[in-house]
Model the fold of this input.
Amino acid sequence: MYRYVFGPVLSGRLGRSLGLDLLGSKVCSMDCVYCEVGPTTIRTRERKPWAAPRDILAELRSWKAEGFDDPDVVSLGGSGEPTLNSGLPEIIAGCRSILPGVPVAVLTNASLLPDPLVRRELGAADMILPSLDSLVEEEFQAVNRPHKSLRLAEIARGILDLRREFSGSIRLEVLLVKGYNDSGKNLDLLRDYCAELKPERVDVVTLSRPGTLDSAEAVDSHTLGLWRKALGAQAAPSGPGAKASASARLTEERLGEALAASLARRPQTLAQLAGALGADPGVVRKALERMVRERELDAIEADGQIFYAHPGFAAPFGGL
Done:
């Protein structure tokens, strides 16, 4: 089973996205209450090769050699904050070599963007998707639970500096958690900020999967619509997303490995998994049921849907 390559998964923002985990474990500069990967095990700002670039790229070459269709995008993210990996330039260059013509996107919490070196390294990507959940200090501390050395004002300024220096697309994400960062004050501040930043896209979203804390709940549809209108945001699709192209035929063993690798990073529904892998939903259902019986996966009900997850995700979900 792959350790660093996962998916493809269907992303509302990116389409059929092949993920690369640049950490290998939950290493992050924040411990967000909504994180679907679970609690941060190492909260740090230290940059180093948390996962060796040669190992990540070797897996990507192996994935490509299996004969799968190219994804719409290759996304650098995974278990934590990808810019913590000091091998970022080598990884981006390797993605371009192995998957020529496939755009490279980086999903970041923006915490390292105050560093000019990090911004220069990100210049080799096609898309940067920074998160900025609140410009209110108390809300930032509550919802993102950042490393003690992080400063909100510096992070916000770092995204603006990236906007001036980066020639690619910047797509800002704001994730709303009920009672944490959905205040009118935050909305007013973010409205003014987006007017200055002028990103190519703004996505205002809320929880669609279980988060790290039981207290992390989705905002209602009215609030979501209000914020999207105010920030000029796009409405995220409610279904699995774009139709997946045909993938290579998966053996039963390989399907199980692909499911396990994808679910190790994020809980997903049957429809999401089948669509992303380009596999027959009935075949995927049988594989998931077998893996649940053999206790390789957990099936968790949340918001009227069944999410499949690696057993390690069960504890943070609490009573869900």
Observations:
- The chain is about 35% helix and 20% strand.
- Residues 152-165 form the longest helix (14 residues).
